[in-house]
C-alpha cells in the first residue's frame, strides 16, 4: 500500500499534535545545551503549518511539503526554521506532482531532505544534530527498500533507527549550533533537534500503520 | 552613492544598537538596515525581516551583511537564494565579528569604497585588539 496525499496530510496533523504535546520536553532538552526555545519554536511553526494546509485536501504531496517548508522557514525563528524548512522544500521537490508514494519514492524523498539539511547546516553525521536521527533513518529505509518490505514496515524501521540515533546523541560532543558553545559540557545530554526529528518520523510511521 | 550595510541579529535591540553605533561612525551617509528578532519580537531570526532589510538597503554599489550567530547565517542564505541573481551578486556575507565589523564597514563605506573594500575592512575586525590581557 503506497502512502497517499491524505496520509501525508494526516502525518502533518499528527506531527503538529505530537510536537505540541512535547513542547515542554523539547524546550527542557534545549535548555540544557541550547537556547531553550526548540519546543516553542517547533510548536509555533507546525501550528502555522496546520493553518496553512487546512484547505489543501486535494493538493499533491510535493505541493503540500513545499508549503510546509516555506511556512516553517518564516515562522520557526531558530535554526530549526531554515533546517526543517529546507528539508521539507527538498522533500517537496522530490515528490512534485505525486498523489502517492511507493517505498522507493519515500526513500528518495528522505534522501533529498537529508541532503538539504546537510547543505543548509554544513553538517554531517556525528555532530549531535538532527542529522544523527535522520541519517540512520535514511540508511534503514534504504536497507528496507532493498529487502522489498511493505511500506508500513519500512517506515517503522526508519522511525526505530531515528530513535536509536537520537539516544546515541547523548554521548556525542556538539560541534554545530548553539550547543557547540558548551564544548565538553554538551556531552551527556540528548540533542533536541534529533529528538524532534524522531518525533516527526515516528508520527509518519504511526500515521501509515493506523 | 555608498555601499549599504545590513545587520542580522537574533535580538532586535542588538541589531538596532549595532546600527546606531556604526551609524555614528558613518555620519549617516551609509544606509544601515536591520533585521533583528523574530516577527513577533522574540529572540530569533526572521527570513521576512532579512528580505525586507535587504530590499531597504538595495543599491547599485552593493550591500555587506553582518550577522551575529549560526542560524542568522542560514536564514540570510535562504533569503539570498530567493532574490534574483542580479540582485544577489551585489550582496556579500561577512564573517567579521558583528560590532567591530559593522563599525569598520560603516567607516569604509562612508569613504565611498567599493563593496570588496568594505568587506575587507570589516574582516579586519577579526584582528582588532581589545586589550593586553589575551
Automatic annotation (TrEMBL), chain A:
Domain DhaL: 6-206
GO cellular component, one term: cytosol
Top-level taxon of origin: Bacteria
Keywords: Kinase, Transferase
Residues making up the signal peptide according to the UniProt record: none
Pfam families tied to this protein: Dak2 (PF02734)
SMART domains listed in its UniProt record: Dak2 (SM01120)
PANTHER family: TRIOKINASE/FMN CYCLASE, TRIOKINASE_FMN CYCLASE
Name recorded for this polypeptide: Dihydroxyacetone kinase subunit L
Protein species of origin: Dictyobacter vulcani
From TrEMBL, chain B:
Transmembrane segments annotated in the record for this chain: none
GO MF entry, a single one: phosphoenolpyruvate-glycerone phosphotransferase activity
Keyword Isomerase: no
InterPro entries: DhaM, DhaM_N, PTS_EIIA_man-typ, PTS_EIIA_man-typ_sf
Keywords (A to Z) from UniProt: Transferase
EC number(s) stated in the UniProt entry for this protein: 2.7.1.121
Any one Gene Ontology BP term: glycerol catabolic process
Residue span, PTS EIIA type-4 domain: 2-129
Catalytic activity, as annotated: dihydroxyacetone + phosphoenolpyruvate = dihydroxyacetone phosphate + pyruvate
GO CC list: membrane
Keyword Transferase attached: yes
Assembly with partners or alone: Homodimer. The dihydroxyacetone kinase complex is composed of a homodimer of DhaM, a homodimer of DhaK and the subunit DhaL.
Stated role: Component of the dihydroxyacetone kinase complex, which is responsible for the phosphoenolpyruvate (PEP)-dependent phosphorylation of dihydroxyacetone. DhaM serves as the phosphoryl donor. Is phosphorylated by phosphoenolpyruvate in an EI- and HPr-dependent reaction, and a phosphorelay system on histidine residues finally leads to phosphoryl transfer to DhaL and dihydroxyacetone.
Protein name as annotated: phosphoenolpyruvate--glycerone phosphotransferase
Organism: Dictyobacter vulcani
Amino acid at each position: 500500500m503506497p502512502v497517499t496525499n491524505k496520509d501525508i496530510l494526516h502525518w502533518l496533523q499528527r506531527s503538529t499534535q505530537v510536537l505540541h504535546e512535547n513542547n515542554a520536553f523539547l524546550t527542557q532538552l534545549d535548555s540544557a545545551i541550547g537556547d531553550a526555545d526548540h519546543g516553542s519554536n517547533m510548536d509555533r511553526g507546525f501550528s502555522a503549518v496546520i493553518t496553512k494546509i487546512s484547505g489543501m485536501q486535494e493538493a499533491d504531496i510535493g505541493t503540500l511539503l513545499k508549503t510546509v517548508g516555506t511556512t516553517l522557514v518564516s515562522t520557526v525563528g531558530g535554526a530549526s526554521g531554515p533546517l526543517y524548512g529546507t528539508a521539507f522544500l527538498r522533500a517537496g521537490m522530490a515528490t512534485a506532482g505525486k498523489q502517492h508514494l511507493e517505498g522507493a519514492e519515500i526513500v528518495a524523498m528522505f534522501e533529498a531532505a537529508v541532503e538539504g539539511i546537510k547543505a543548509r547546516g554544513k553538517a554531517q553525521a556525528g555532530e549531535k544534530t538532527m542529522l544523527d536521527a535522520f541519517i540512520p533513518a535514511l540508511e534503514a529505509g534504504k536497507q528496507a527498500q532493498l529487502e522489498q518490505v511493505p511500506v508500513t514496515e519500512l517506515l517503522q524501521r526508519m522511525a526505530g533507527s531515528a530513535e536509536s540515533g537520537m539516544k546515541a546523541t547523548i554521548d556525542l560532543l556538539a560541534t554545530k549550533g548553539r550547543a557547540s558553545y558548551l564544548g565538553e559540557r554538551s556531552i551527556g545530554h540528548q540533542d533536541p533537534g534529533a529528538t524532534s526529528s524522531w518525533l516527526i518520523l515516528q508520527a509518519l510511521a504511526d500515521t501509515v500503520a493506523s | 552613492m555608498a555601499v549599504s550595510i545590513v545587520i542580522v541579529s537574533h535580538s532586535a535591540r542588538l541589531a538596532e544598537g549595532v546600527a546606531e553605533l556604526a551609524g555614528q561612525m558613518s555620519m549617516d551617509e551609509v544606509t544601515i538596515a536591520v533585521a533583528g528578532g523574530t516577527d513577533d519580537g522574540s529572540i530569533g531570526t526572521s527570513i521576512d525581516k532579512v528580505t525586507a532589510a535587504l530590499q531597504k538597503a538595495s543599491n547599485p554599489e552593493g550591500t555587506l551583511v553582518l550577522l551575529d550567530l549560526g542560524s542568522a547565517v542560514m536564514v540570510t542564505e535562504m533569503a539570498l537564494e530567493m532574490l534574483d541573481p542580479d540582485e544577489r551578486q551585489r550582496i556579500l556575507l561577512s564573517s567579521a565579528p558583528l560590532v567591530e565589523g559593522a563599525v569598520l564597514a560603516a567607516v569604509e563605506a562612508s569613504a565611498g569604497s567599493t563593496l570588496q573594500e568594505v568587506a575587507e575592512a570589516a574582516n579586519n575586525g577579526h584582528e582588532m585588539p581589545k586589550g593586553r590581557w589575551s
